[in-house]
Amino acid sequence: MTPLIIICCYLALLLALGLFAGRLSRGTGSDYLVASHSIGPFLLLMSLFGTTMTAFALVGSTGEAFKEGIGVYGMLASSSGILHSLCFFVLGVRLWSLGKRYGYRTQVQYFRDRLDSSGIGLVLFPILVVLVIPYLMIGVISSGAVIQAMTAGAFPELFPSDNRAIAGGVPSPIGSAAICGVVLSYVFYGGMRGTAWANALQTLVFMVLGLVTFNVIAHKLGGEETLLENLRVLGEAIPEDKATRSDMSLSKFTTYLLVPLSVGMFPHLFQHWLTAKSASSFKLPVVCHPVFIMIVWVPCVLIGVWATTDLVPPAPPLPDNPNTILPFLVKTLTNPVLGGFLAAGILAAIMSSLDSQFLCLGTMFTTDIVGHYAPRPELSQEERDRRDIRLARSFIIGIVVVTYLLSLLKPPSVFALGVWCFSGFSALFPLVLAALYWRGLTKAGAYAGVLAAAGAWAWFFSDAVGRAVEAGNPGPIRTYTVDVTLGGVTYATMPVLWVFLASAIALVAVSLVTPRPKEDTLAKFFGDSISPQSR
Amino acid sequence: MQKVVWGLVVLLLIVHQDVWFWRDDTLVFGFVPVGLFFHASISVAASVAWFLATRHCWPASLEGEAPGGEAAA
Fold this sequence. Notes:
The complex is a heterodimer. Chain A is an all-alpha fold. Chain A has a two-stranded antiparallel ribbon. Chain A starts with a helix and ends in a 9-residue tail after the last helix. Chain A is built from 22 helices and 2 strands. Chain B has helices spanning 2-15, 34-56; strands at 27-28, 32-33. The longest helix of chain B is centred in the middle third of the chain and has 23 residues, at 34-56. Chain B contains 2 helices and 2 strands. In chain B, a hairpin with a 3-residue loop joins strand 1 and strand 2 (32-33).
């Protein structure tokens, strides 16, 4: 019961924060959707970090390290440290500047203007929505599963189950509904300001609780007096295959480097970039993001490899699902209070991504579809603001309901879709980079790049699905690689490499042979005050 | 200086492919596998490189030029 009380208190705190943020609202569309460009460096750092770190940063990193060893840090974390900041620096600052200057709220608005093409919105919009929805479902399903696992035993008569790990726990559909309700409430009332504040709080919560959990688990498993002694005992017990990357493919590791570029095209991150108060607000996130990733990931990776050692008590046995290793260790090695706080930390990581995704989808429907095709110019600015907020809220409710209902179906392969979503966003990276820095990008080139990315992605994905159907489980969707044989040696590569290349080559090749953009358009986006200058 | 900073970022991406520690299970400080320690160091080095980038490559022209309107939404 203790974990449930702590979780409920935490959710109540978030609700209060969202309602308070709502009271500070200026009542304009800009305030609701991009916080009137008022977010300073610290809040921007916390909200960007919280948004990019999903539940995967806590439970997934531990589970992957349990399966693959310490190599997952290099594959997923240190690469993200370099490339996420690159995206903030190279894309975020310029998109913020253009967004503030021309009043953009969504990526589609920018691309429509930059490419002089209303139709590019009809191509990009469904792709972005389709890539975000599985990501949302992962969060909703995970939150229910975490609440059920961490409250197991609280209500043995009310929620009986044959599975001892979840018997008596709050059923996952109820847990997921509660999380959706809380996120919906603070996004509904607080808009982007409430989301940014909630993200900042949640980021602090999961960072601090991650470190506390690391310390407690090290003490319990190591059994020595000091932290350093425990770390040494545990370090020496790590099996060789988990302390090295002997079982990891170098070519897969290398090609995975393109996956973190996905943040350059995340629609929810674009919206967070627009909230910045000034270009300088980006400096702190650019500098601190890699170290923040390290603070969260290194302890989780170490816990994951420690779980493979003989120091873990033989009973109860470790769960089959690697993603439940961290909650399992917390539940079996620590007390209910820490268990409750860790559950709150994991939920914080989940919700700090969910809220931004819900808000961005609501903003996209409001701006890119309704606002674009039914602009109602006869309305005053005040009336348009009221309409925008009302529409955004309605769409957000609709998206939350649809995502929740889809999550009840518990599609078995949804978790395997994660890396595919990221690969899809990465394949659109050449588009945003070229739009910002290459005057030669043409409308036809942009269409070619997007369609080549979509086509190549669909080709590889259908192949992976075919293999999964053949195998009778979703495993091949998660582990799919494109194997290339050169000189008699076979190299496993991530599909993102080929999808990215298809997109970039099509974009450049078609742009080179099609008419250049209008001079007015180039002047608007590459004028003196916009062009890159450095001191 | 700009070239140095961007060179550092490229260097980080190159050393990220650390084949030299691929099968090395040495423990740094007696508890961190060297492969993990090396990549954690890359994270710290990335922060340093990006700090230099914000000092020497920052697009100052973007700093105060936006009028702050919602002019052409």
